[in-house]
Amino acid sequence: MTAEGGASAGGGVEGAAARGEAVAGEAVPGGEAVVGEATAGEAAAVKARKRRFGLTTDTAPPEGGGRAAPGDASAPARQWPLLTVLVLAGLGLLVVGVEPFPHSYRVGTMLVGAALLVGAVMRRVVPSVGMLAVRSRFTDMITYGVMGTLIVLLALMVQPGPWMRIPFLEDVLHLTVT
What we know:
The protein is mostly helical. It is built from seven helices and no strands. It is extended and about 70 Å long.
């Protein structure tokens, strides 16, 4: 018999106890005895208390995920770290799209990579970065830093007329193309 009082396929009270379900009149660890017929909500609460691994009980917000400015400030002021990264990346995309000078594709792409590197630095230095915090501080720093570095390096190596040459990567490119 399950917590709702119906018969279960596992064989009554013994089957319910073997599956870890609460039975009327039975005490559960960390909770009080279930008296009488339990509702579906109570059964779910009892089952939630009987999880096998009790290490993680809820999803924690990311470190530094609070507001970057006081609550009475306007929304843009509260999210200035994220807006800084987005404005830099948007400026880079604008430079690539408008193409106002030679090699603007390279400079614009480097601005996008620099925006991610600025995000990594802010994630390390600023204690509260608002919505720029997605995961843990360490994971965000590594993700933003690696992606930003790769984008800047690729922008420097793009053909024609690369500004930087890395022989190892040139050999890999020639092996994959030919």
